[in-house]
Design a protein that fits this description.
Catalytic activity: 2 reduced [2Fe-2S]-[ferredoxin] + NADP(+) + H(+) = 2 oxidized [2Fe-2S]-[ferredoxin] + NADPH
Strand order of the largest sheet: 4-3-6-1-2-5
CATH superfamily of the largest domain: Nucleotide-binding domain of ferredoxin-NADP reductase (FNR) module
Number of domains: 2
Keywords: FAD, Flavoprotein, NADP, Nucleotide-binding, Oxidoreductase
Shape: globular
Cofactor: FAD
InterPro entries: Cbr1-like_FAD-bd_dom, FAD-bd_FR_type, Flavoprot_Pyr_Nucl_cyt_Rdtase, FNR_bac, FNR_nucleotide-bd, FNR_type-1, OxRdtase_FAD/NAD-bd, Riboflavin_synthase-like_b-brl
CATH architecture of the largest domain: 3-Layer(aba) Sandwich
Largest sheet: 6 strands, antiparallel
Distance between the termini: 28 Å
CATH topology of the largest domain: Rossmann fold
Helix content: 10-25%
Oligomer: single chain
EC number: 1.18.1.2
Number of helices: 10
Number of strands: 11
CATH class of the largest domain: Alpha Beta
Bound molecules: adenosine-2'-5'-diphosphate
Length: 275
């Protein structure tokens, strides 16, 4: 049993199985259900846990000798005292069928090492950062849009979120509201943080896939910006596999080059957690 696990004594006493090495056992602080497919939760943050905004970490539950772990983007910024996640609920998903039932006080396992490419370090400087997301792909951007470093690097920060219906947009809407009002970061975002939402299976002010709205120019018209340009624009993409492929193709068509931690460039992609 590791020291992080021992720290959380109450939770540890309730565990049926030993905690694997290199894993934190943390307590659930709060859970919020948005729809029958989406929920968010916050857990205690181990003092020694460091990450870069936009990274993901492996999450599991202490309900088996060999717990199932899945990659989750950290939705909270790196200055937050807790760690936040935004999750899909898959009825027969090996992890989420159980995870969706967690309550405050329960224990969640988190591997100690975070990683990922949706980080400021993987992009070269630019004027404008587009964070393009669908579904739970908004999570890494929830972290990045609350990190002062993002505003040091970019003049304008644009979050796009596309979901099936209006109810699924709620997490992002609340995020924008609370970020703008936040005593730490609110002032920094003034006039610089922009939000564009669209739905694909229910009418709303902007209806259609983000790929369609990029191609027909509706996104840029709504934001008052020009089409993607490598001279000024940087792009981060997070969503389902097909969405990544299609948005990536549009970024490349506009002349943007894919970057990585080792070789920063104009855009980066990461798959949102699905199972
Ligand atoms: P659609 O309703 O047309 O499938 P999901 O919840 O299934 O991950 O989907 C989230 C959003 O991503 C939905 O609005 C969905 O649109 C959209 N989407 C799915 N595939 C693509 C794609 N290849 N390109 C752009 N958007 C996509």
């Amino acid at each position: 049993m590791n020291t992080a696990a021992l720290r959380n004594t109450e939770a540890v006493q309730a565990l049926e199985f030993p905690i694997p090495a290199g894993v934190y056992a943390e307590r659930v602080v709060s859970v919020k259900h948005y729809t029958d497919r989406l929920f968010s939760f916050r857990i205690t943050r181990p003092q020694s846990f460091r990450f870069r905004s936009g990274e993901f970490v492996m999450i599991g539950l202490p309900n088996a000798e060999k717990p199932v772990f899945r990659a989750y983007s950290i939705a909270s910024p790196n200055w937050d005292e807790e760690v936040e996640f935004f999750s899909i609920k898959v009825p027969d998903g090996p992890l989420t069928q159980h995870l969706q039932k967690i309550q405050p006080g329960d224990t969640v396992l988190m591997r100690q090492k975070s990683t990922g490419t949706l980080v400021n370090d993987a992009l070269t400087p630019g004027k404008r950062l587009y964070m393009i997301s669908t579904g739970t792909g908004i999570a890494p951007f929830a972290s990045l849009m609350r990190d002062p470093e993002t505003y040091d690097k970019f003049e304008q920060v644009i979050l796009t979120h596309t979901c099936r219906d209006v109810a699924e947009l709620r997490y992002g809407e609340e995020l924008i509201e609370t970020t703008r009002e936040d005593p730490l970061i609110g002032e920094l975002t003034e006039g610089r943080l922009h939000y564009f939402a669209s739905t694909t299976r229910e009418p709303s002010p902007h209806t259609g896939r983000i790929t369609t709205l990029i191609e027909n120019g509706e996104l840029f018209k709504a934001l008052g910006t020009e089409p993607l340009d490598p001279a000024t624009d940087r792009v981060m993409i997070c969503g389902s596999m097909n969405m990544l492929k299609d948005v990536k193709a549009l970024a490349e068509k506009a002349g943007l080059k894919e970057g990585s931690n080792a070789e920063p460039a104009d855009f980066v992609v990461e798959r949102a957690f699905v199972g």
